[in-house]
Amino acid sequence: MMKTTLLLLLLLVCSSSVSSSDSSPISDAVCGIFTFGDSIFDAGNNHFNKNCTVQADFPPYGSSFFHYPTGRFTNGRTVADFISQFIGIPLQKPYYEGVTSLQEQLQQFQTLVDQNHIDKTLVQKSFVFFESGSNDIFNYFLPFAPPTLDPDAYVQAMLTQVTKFIDQIYMLGARRIALFSLGPVGCVPARALLPGAPINRCFGKMNLMVKKYNKGLECLVNDMPIKYPGVVGVYGETYDIVQRFRAIPTRYHFSDVSSACCGGGTLGGMLQCGKEGYKTCANPNEFLFWDYFHPSEHAYRLISKALWGGKKYRIRPLNLKALANITLTRV
Description:
Blueprint: E1 6-9, E2 25-26, E3 33-37, H1 45-48, H2 79-87, E4 93-94, H3 102-114, H4 120-124, E5 127-131, H5 134-140, H6 151-171, E6 176-180, H7 204-227, E7 232-236, H8 238-247, E8 256-260, E9 262-263, E10 279-280, E11 287-289, H9 297-309, E12 315-316, H10 320-325, E13 328-329
Parallel strand pairs: 3-5, 5-6, 6-7, 8-11
Antiparallel strand pairs: 1-3, 1-4, 2-13, 7-12, 9-10
Helix pairs in contact: 2-9, 6-7, 8-9
């Protein structure tokens, strides 16, 4: 459970010095982003992780913006990259340890804080982003190893891991925490690999699990003010944002919201982009999906704008722009 996550670190550009007074306000200048997530957020950790079975460090990944593969599972920038640009800090870089489990990430992160490689006050002045679980839910439907838990119990086990994550990251100084919902995983082109999954529509059973998990994430955010004094948490409604793209694609300049731009086979979802026999579409940013599992840079740009400046039906109770500028009181 939660074993397909990667840690991306250190988008830091400002001083970490703040007053040590217990009642002093924390500066409203956001210095960086600490991102805990899966391949949706990966900036290249897969290249350094020798145990990673799926990588994106080869062409044509990165072709639309960087013009070379960076390890990002898309044709350009991710959400964390766009939010970094909105804040005015450098694009994300990979954390080279290549850890995979969430607990290992937190242990290494705690070591960096304990050894003063990362100032705890710097953590307080940064965003902490969390997006994870897509692979866990997709893997639940793989035919190779039947799950031992029913769907509800499986989702609850995932949420228990997220709760432990929030507990630990709070103790390490996190005060601006954003939990992003999963997108409609049952709509990814890779569903073509699953026996019995529909091709002409999304996989309803999978999306039902996603929605239950997302509901749990929002409940965790709603509990933050009471459970974690001094924290401002936000919940990003990525699922509904993406479903809106699918419902009215032309409004968002998509010509295809079902198939992968880069891949092969049914829906372009039966072969990873860049592998022998793959094909690439002529206009990647007219596609919702870049490869069999991940959005295009255009989709990420739209998602990022909604999270940065969107109203409460996109991100709540605050958008990321407001969260970046809020003055927090240390407790």
